Amino acid sequence: MQPGSLRLLRPLGAGWAAAGADYSSRRAAGAEGGRSRFLPRRCPPREPMEGAEEEAAVRCPVCLRELPGALINSHLDRCLQAGEGDAERGWSPPSKKPRLAAAPSGETTPAAAPVFSLFNKGRGGGQSPGAPGGRSGAGRGDAAEKAEEGGLALGGGTALRGASVAQKLEGKPLADRLRPDTLRDYVGQERVLGAQTLLRSLLESHEIPSLILWGPPGCGKTTLAHIIANSSKKTGTRFVTLSATSAKTNDVRDVISQAQNEKRLFKRKTILFIDEIHRFNKSQQDTFLPHVECGTVTLIGATTENPSFQVNAALLSRCRVIVLEKLSAEAMEAILMRAVRSLGVQVLGKDDQHDSSATGSGSESSEFPVYIEEKALSTLAYLCDGDARTGLNGLQLALQARLAAGKTTPLSTAKGCSADGVVITEEHVKEGLQRSHILYDRAGEEHYNCISALHKSMRGSDENASLYWLARMLEGGEDPLYVARRLVRFASEDIGLADPLALTQAVAAYQGCHFIGMPECEVILAQCVVYFARAPKSIEVYRAYSNVKECLRMHTGPLPPVPLHLRNAPTRLMKNLGYGKGYKYNPMYKEPVEQDYLPEELKGMDFFKEQKT
Is the separation of the CB atoms in 270 and 298 below 8 Å? Predict the structure, then answer.
């Protein structure tokens, strides 16, 4: 130990000062008695090991163990190296304020940050636990910090006392702040996550299999992954989140490499959550195959597209597909009710006035209370079409708009404001959403579902259902020419010769859509759809042609040649070879002409009477 080291570490505790005093006294004694002949020059004499217990004990600032002063330097080096490795794995040193040695009068005690910055790499920017602005210990969780920053407790649904509604709406979107942390607070998806279901039992026992979460936007896929992440902290499982919209193959490989090291060195599992996994192409998805197979990572993918088309079959066989449905109106009302209670907004029933008898608790520090009609919440629950994110964001937008109007306009004249406070009505909610939220993806699963429903409704002669599915597609942004092309096909496939004018109607509808476009062409398509729904149906031509294709597919050997009398003979050589010989020109005969038109092997074949089996 050298004096310079003692002066640098002196602020860490009184033990260092005691060790320095002991060292100085022994060095002075050595100078008086002469230099030891067994030690190199300029080194203080070393006490025998038996006397190590008699030295002043020094407390290690990392692990807080008390050691002899002669051994503290080597021990501190080992602790710092181990601390850096633990910091990478999420470990933080124990929370305890260091004991500072008493500084002489007139001398400023140096800050302890330079030492602790080696292993304290938190948000405090390398500050010591006792430094101003730094963390005072590891007992303060991330959830509490997010609650203090955002103004709401995540998933708890309780209002932050002392904050106004406007302050609670600032910062993160309401849908992100109210994301639940446990399965107990998860709303909806009872068929998949209800009591006694397989998936719920696995999640509660912390046995997470590889999953593909498939469902529409706002149904709870990311929230379920968030709950799994919080649950994995209790078991020490590592949870990594990537988004396929921004992550690259190298990012995935880095995570897998870290997972291999964690599993090999610490027997620690890794859960990898990939949001929008359908954005990865086939080669990128192949990166997961061997590692999911051997259990290096547990893969959880979230997608709004049909996994049968967007996810590799090999990867699907290694994962369990969980189908999440749109949230029901009842589930949406429960989510919205929890949101307004978290914000401290009072709910007005049909017969309630603006008084304290309303449900909920008023905001404590607002200038005036905020109310929302129960009918407004019900309307919002139906308009968001099972999308919780849309519903919560619409609620937040309506509240912010009315609060802004209440602050800038006198309460006596502002629309929706009274002497008691600000009221959010059904009209305000509709104004925030502008229109019904229609789930439709022109390139996804809903595209094919709706066109199939339209086709089957017209085939079944249900004109009301046909108009409904047509409107679902057009109002969702579908290309009208695509619908018109499908109607042309329907005219021949399902109506056929039962009404030959149907094909003319379909072609005319396509031309009209091409000429004028949306929204004027919507009535043209509606007319054509109703005509087809009411028209008689016949699949005679469609079935006969299908029989012909089946005959060609089932034929063995070379196809039969065209009979000579049916062949064209434009040259003398062809005529000499017998092309066209014996052909009877039908318009020249008044009575029916007996003549074969099928190859010899197919004589007597009637494709209209043949039934496919």
Answer: yes
Distances (CA, A) of 556 to 358, 563, 602, 611: 81, 19, 13, 20
Please state, in angstroms and rounded to a whole number, the distance separating the CA atoms of residues 194 and 138.
Answer: 36
Tell me, what amino acid is at 497? L
pLDDT in tens, 260-304: 999 998 889 999 999 999 999 988 999 999 999 998 999 999 998
Contact by Cβ (8 Å): 371, 361: no
End-to-end Cα spacing for the chain:
95
Exposed e or buried b for every residue in 134-150, given b needs 16+ CB within 10 A?
Answer: bbeeeeeeeeeebbeeb
Global confidence as pTM: 0.55
| Residues forming a β-bridge with 423 | 371
Q: How far is CA 107 from CA 98, 101, 103, 104, 110, in A?
A: 19, 12, 6, 6, 9
Query: 439 is written with which tokens?
Result: 């789930």
Q: pLDDT, tens digit, for every residue of 412-429?
A: 434 444 445 788 888 888
181: left (phi over 0), alpha (psi -120 to 50) or beta: alpha
CA atoms within 13 A on the CB side of 533: 22
Q: What is the DSSP string of 327-370?
A: PPHHHHHHHHHHHHHHHTPEEE-SS--SSTTSBS---SSSSS-E
- Give the pLDDT confidence of 457-474 residue by residue, as tens digits: 999 999 999 999 999 999
Helix axes of 480-490 and 501-516: crossing angle, nearest 10 degrees: 170
Nearest partner of 424 among 390, 378, 382, judged by Cα = 378
Contact partners, residue 111, CB within 8 Å, separation at least 6: 11, 128, 131
Contact 132, 126 (CB under 8 A): no
Residue 206 near residue 240, CB atoms below 8 Å: no
